[in-house]
Write a structure and sequence with these properties.
By secondary structure, the protein is of the alpha/beta class. Helices cover 38% and strands 17% of the residues. The chain has helices at 6-12, 24-29, 56-59, 68-80, 93-105, 120-137, 158-163, 197-215, 241-252, 273-276, 304-307, 330-345, 348-369, 403-413, 435-451, and strands at residues 35-39, 42-45, 50-53, 111-117, 145-149, 180-183, 220-225, 255-259, 283-286, 298-303, 373-379, 382-390, 395-396, 416-417, 419-421, 424-427. Helix 7 (158-163) links the parallel strand 5 (145-149) and strand 6 (180-183). The radius of gyration is 22 Å and the shape is globular. The structure holds pyridoxal-5'-phosphate (PLP).
Length: 454
């Protein structure tokens, strides 16, 4: 083996390596870029081609690449203590410091405790288990079900996958967990009800209430939702929707879990997506931006209502019987402390809001010019360009249609790394993005549509 040999790497990429969410057969034909280095908002592949990273890795490199502060923090921590566990009998300083830091930055949401994992799927799994145990400790053991939204994405462990609101993520792995139910999400561009955002929010809120009543509130543990749906296609709910979710959860005594795996730490233009809607959830799931993707880490935060259940002497055991070898890994926690400081010190949430607004306006201008663009939407630096065969009917390009890939490949050829999810171009760059970067990307996108007229 010679992993420094480019031809060897290209040849062997699919031989022993299983790639997430891809058909291995298709990968033999469509070879992915092999990314070798990153600096700021740019990445470079093994052939020396440089790209603006419009994906931010996978919605995660909030602080940008090559940040000395994070690299030094990780190196120092590895030199001092590479690993120690939080299991009975020990703990470590970076995990203690990070739990304090997270409750400080999420004090406005009332968060008081953190449980650590390694990625978004862990954050969701922890949230679901915390919600079930909470109700047992509260003396209501029948409250075990979960409600989530169509188009919602909550990772691919069995619990989170069962909460996902899209069949494509689940069908190969059925049967799923019992007790999970999905309801309509307020998707303004694609819904059978109305074009009025606030009316749509109300209709979806009422559908949710009907589902809760049908299931019986006394059997429901929690509602889990993303403040802005990401992998489902960057679906931004109307402003009244999240406040309505909070009201409904209070009315029926159901916990509200905000899956902030993408929106947490600045991406949607406020430090947390829930904060952007003025809502305080009971449980928050964080990953991705928590460490800016430098090392694997997630956190599940809980408010005092939830945390206090473990403080009392209940009939059920109050042992928190959950966690992983690497929960609170000192190197990951040290990286996160440095990454969060960058987000705060450089006010990257505000930058995401300002540059994201500018990006959205520029993309709307592009929509005027190219009829394959059916919709443009986003909040902060999470945006989507949805491609359709016909604007009037909104007929989407399907998985077998080559057109969306032709657009993203034209972008890649011209130095912009952009991802497609079926018929959507997904934009989620580092939060250090500037208006000049936006201009560069929009020009490349424009040229891609001109070269591929529809
Ligand atoms: C909202 C949301 N929840 C959970 C996850 C799962 O995260 P991971 O892939 O790190 O397990 C993702 C991943 O994109 C996500 O977007």
């Amino acid at each position: 083996m010679n992993s420094n040999n480019n031809a060897w790497l290209k040849e062997h990429n699919t031989v022993h390596l299983m790639h997430p969410m891809q058909d291995p057969k298709a990968l033999h034909e469509n070879r992915p870029l092999i990314i070798q280095s990153g600096k700021g908002v740019h990445i470079t592949d093994i052939d020396g081609r440089r790209f603006i990273d419009c994906q931010g890795g996978l919605w995660c490199v909030n602080a940008g690449y090559g940040r000395r502060e994070i690299i030094d923090a990780v190196t120092r921590q590895m030199e001092e203590l590479a690993y120690y566990s939080l299991f009975p009998g020990s703990t470590n300083a970076p995990a203690i410091a990070l739990s304090q830091k997270l409750t400080e930055v999420a004090a406005e949401e009332g968060m008081v405790k953190a449980s650590f994992g390694l990625g978004g799927s862990d954050a969701v799994e922890s949230a679901l288990k915390i919600a079930r145990q909470y109700w047992k400790l509260e003396g209501q053991p029948d409250k075990v079900k979960f409600i989530s939204l169509y188009n919602g994405y909550h990772g691919l462990n069995f619990g989170g996958m069962s909460a996902c609101g899209g069949n494509a993520w689940k069908s190969s792995y059925e049967p799923l967990m019992p007790g999970f139910f999905q309801v309509e999400s307020p998707h303004l561009y694609r819904n059978p009800f109305t074009n009025d955002p606030e009316e749509l929010a109300e209709i979806c809120a009422q559908i949710l209430e009907r589902q809760i009543e049908m299931q019986a509130p006394g059997t429901i543990a929690a509602l889990i939702a993303e403040p802005v749906q990401g992998a489902g296609g960057v679906i931004v709910p109307p402003a009244s929707y999240w406040p309505r979710l909070r009201q409904i959860c209070d009315k029926y005594d159901i916990l509200l879990i905000a899956d902030e795996v993408i929106t947490g730490l600045g991406r949607s233009g406020s430090l947390f997506g829930s904060r952007g809607w003025g809502v305080k959830p009971d449980i928050m799931c964080l990953a991705k931006g928590i460490s800016s993707g430098y090392v694997p880490l997630s956190a599940t935060l809980v408010n005092s209502r939830v945390a206090q259940a473990w403080e009392r002497d209940a009939g059920f055991t109050s042992v928190y019987m959950h966690g992983y070898t690497y929960s609170g890994h000192p190197v990951s926690c040290a990286a996160a402390l440095a990454a969060i400081d960058i987000v705060l010190d450089e006010n990257l949430a505000e930058n995401a809001r300002v540059v994201g607004d500018y990006f959205l306006q520029k993309l709307l201008t592009l929509k005027e010019k190219h009829r394959a663009i059916g919709d443009v939407r986003g909040k902060g630096l999470m945006l989507a360009v949805e491609l359709v065969k016909d604007r009037a009917t909104k007929e989407p390009f399907g998985p077998a249609d080559a057109y969306p890939l032709a657009i993203s490949e034209a972008c890649v050829s011209n130095g912009v790394m952009i991802r497609t999810i079926v018929n959507k171009l997904i934009i989620s760059p580092p939060l250090t993005f500037t208006k000049e970067h936006v201009d560069e990307v929009v020009e490349v996108l424009d040229r891609a549509f001109v070269a591929n007229p529809w």
